[in-house]
Amino acid sequence: MWPLYAAGFTTAFGAHGIAASLGSDPEGAVSSLMVLGGLLALYDGAEVLLKPLFGTLADRIGARPVLLGGLAAFAVASAVYVVADSPGWLWAARLGQGAAASAFSPSASALVARLNPAARHGRAFGSYGFYKSLGYTAGPLLGGVLVWAGGLRLLFAVLAVLGAAVAVWAVLVVPVVPPLPKARQTVLDLARRLADPVFLAPTAALAAATAALSVGVGFLPVSGRTAGLGTVATGAAVSLLAGCAAVVQPRAGRALDDGRLTTRTGLAAGLSVTAAGLACAMLPGLTGILVAAALIGVGTGLITPLGFAALAASTPTERLGQTMGAAELGRELGDAGGPLLVAAVASLATLTYGFAALAALIGTGAVLAIVHRRSEPAVPRPETGR
């Protein structure tokens, strides 16, 4: 399992480490805000388009080859900019990284499900999410240090070595998991499966969690600067958010496996806590920012392992890659849609109203989850003999 956790760390570290450092490169590879926005969108756009495709490919040929190919491609794409060192090749490297992450991210999720019994899916996805959260936390910090020390080339060089090392580790440790025989599936069958509430509910919760996480990372520092806080305080808030998410995920997974928490209850609670965190972001000053960061981290930490465990439990084993790729697409849409919603509302009113809009949207999802749970008929207990 450890190479899979390392793969999760790699994709998170690569995404956030470079995204947070592009604008501060002392060598000036990013010449304008338009270039910065294009480079950020290029990576995310590749993931949105390719994750479902690579997930389906993992089901067809096996998740291990797709995982290994993606990690190797990530290392090569990162090395391209180290060798070429020109703004034009930076675009090619960033596109290659996004495409490679689209391959090994859903493949790693599918292997986490295949290599663990259903009774341990909560723990497995909790641990996987923990190491991804470490990547999200360490990316901006270590990325900034590396760019300060040696520019973007040093950061890309570290990512190339990291991708190659994890690929070699996976070759040596990850077992061969052959693809399973599948019944023929038409486009209509796929549409029905993806439209089923069993798929839509956890995927929507995962998208909401990612939206809140992105908004917290991107906009809580803006609130801090508006309140006159320094970069240390705002950076601590972002680290608190990621740290809370990292701590909660393994615990939520264990609670699910031990029967102390159900998927519906956990997702509803996670959505409620996340919405409360966004509401607290409306409060002025450091206290509101820190409470918001902690609650958003706890809420997203609850949702992530439970959502993926629910998807794994409801998906035929031979279709795990396809389902994980589609779920990752939902997360990417949340990653982009959350900040866009908050920014659009903030441009018309203030950032406070932007937080309120996303809090209301996620809170509505929590209410629907609770109402749906209460409306389900009780399952009769089997009668015991006298």
Helix proportion range: over 70%
Quote the distance from N terminus to C terminus.
47 Å
Low-pLDDT sequence parts? 375-386
**Shape estimate:** globular
| Helix count, DSSP H or I runs of 4 or more residues | 12
Q: In terms of structural class, how would the helical and strand content be classed?
A: mainly alpha
- Binned strand content: under 5%
**Alpha-carbon Rg, integer:** 21 Å
Main β-sheet: number of strands, strand sense, barrel status? Answer: none
The strand count comes to 0
Helix and strand run: HHHHHHHHHHHH
The overall pLDDT average reads 80
Explained architecture:
Helix content is 83%, strand content 0%. The protein has helices at residues 2-21, 33-61, 63-84, 87-114, 121-173, 187-195, 197-226, 231-257, 263-280, 285-314, 320-348, 351-375. It is globular.
Task: Give keywords.
386 residues; 12 helices; disordered C terminus; mainly alpha; globular
Secondary structure layout plus pairing:
Blueprint: H1 2-21, H2 33-61, H3 63-84, H4 87-114, H5 121-173, H6 187-195, H7 197-226, H8 231-257, H9 263-280, H10 285-314, H11 320-348, H12 351-375
Question: Can you describe this structure in just a few lines?
Answer:
With 386 residues, this protein is mainly α. Helices cover 83% and strands 0% of the residues.
